[in-house]
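pinging the channel bc i need a second pair of eyes. not urgent but kinda urgent?? the chain im working w is below, pasted from the shared doc
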Amino acid sequence: MALLKIRKFPDQSLKTAAAPVENIDGELNSLVDSMAQTMYAAPGVGLAAPQVGESKRIVVLDTNHEEPGKHLLKLINPRIVEARGKVIWEEGCLSVIDFSADVERAAQVLVKAWTPDQKEIEIEANDLLAVALQHEIDHLDGKLFIDRISRIKRELYRRKLKKMIKDGKADDRPSKVRI
């Protein structure tokens, strides 16, 4: 296992939909383990394969910071099959430097996915887990949370990022845990 480089906005690989995983094998398991290690080191709540330059429909998630690894989800080809209600949640992202915003999401979701040991699972989620699942599945579809905020807020962030890069202040490490 190795730490992987997390791609940052505006990297174009973050805007491309990921390909479905056809075969679950040892190479895939190695990628999933490296993704989990990278997510914890960042630190983050979730990480999708496109964020580390892999066009594969793979997500790792762990919303329990008190016991890292105890509730780690490793999901292959996840898809939302039901969504209910609405919630506004402040989101950040490991691929979006130094920015967070309120995003409207479904309050509850039902997600179907495969595990690395080739078992199909269903996850009923609400609160942070529901938001994190939607956020990471968006990555698999080539979307970032900033695509779900107003154009004005998105443009303000682009300007802020451009200035941070120009001033040499675009730090790759987020100041707090990110989805």
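so The radius of gyration is 16 Å. and Residues 12-166 form a domain with the Peptide Deformylase fold (CATH 3.90.45.10). — does that match what u expected or am i reading it wrong
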